[in-house]
Amino acid sequence: MFPATKTRSLLAALALAALCAGPALAQDRIEVLTTDTATPAEVPADAVTVTIDKMKYQQPEITIKAGSVVTWQNAEAMPHNVAFKAGAVADEKLDGPMMKKGQSFSMRFNEPGTYDYHCTPHPFMKGKVIVE
Predict the structure, then answer these.
(1) pLDDT of residue 81
(2) Distant-in-sequence contacts of 71-74, Cβ < 8 A, 24+ apart
(3) Which pLDDT tens digit goes with each residue over 92-114?
């Protein structure tokens, strides 16, 4: 039998190891690749582009493979974003940055599922990413 101090130390070490290993063991459902629309993210050449123009997502529904990247590109003067309700891609809602004309926002979708999104200031603008 271990002394109480060794048992506590062992449990603390195991807990710390589990916390450190946690993120490496479970891949996020999505990865946000763009944190600043003024500095475009490096995206793969095979990324799927959704153009925003004429107050709508020009490709309102796309189907991609798990691990693929989607880039939303704003082609009009009106600012737009990409927003997901709580539970769609994370436990909390995710609002992408407001994009001015010529700016973009990119995300990698790692898990199969259907991801519905909208534009925060223009909720009638809706889109869907289907990940296989």
Answers:
(1) 97
(2) 71/43, 71/47, 71/104, 71/105, 71/106, 72/96, 72/99, 72/104, 72/105, 72/106, 73/49, 73/99, 73/102, 73/103, 73/104, 74/99, 74/100, 74/101, 74/102, 74/103, 74/104
(3) 888 999 999 999 999 999 999 99
Average pLDDT of the residues in 16-45: 61
pLDDT value at 22 more than 80: no
Percent of the chain's residues with pLDDT above 70: 74
User: Average pLDDT of the chain?
Assistant: 81
- CA distance linking residue 104 with residue 41, whole number of Å: 9
What CA–CA distance (Å, rounded) separates 90 from 113? Answer: 13
Q: How far apart are CA 64 and CA 41, in angstroms?
A: 19
Nearest to 69 by CA among 26, 100, 40: 40
Q: Report which of 19, 29, 81, 74 is spatially closest to residue 49, judged by C-alpha positions.
A: 74
Cβ atoms of 30 and 69 within 8 Å: the answer is no
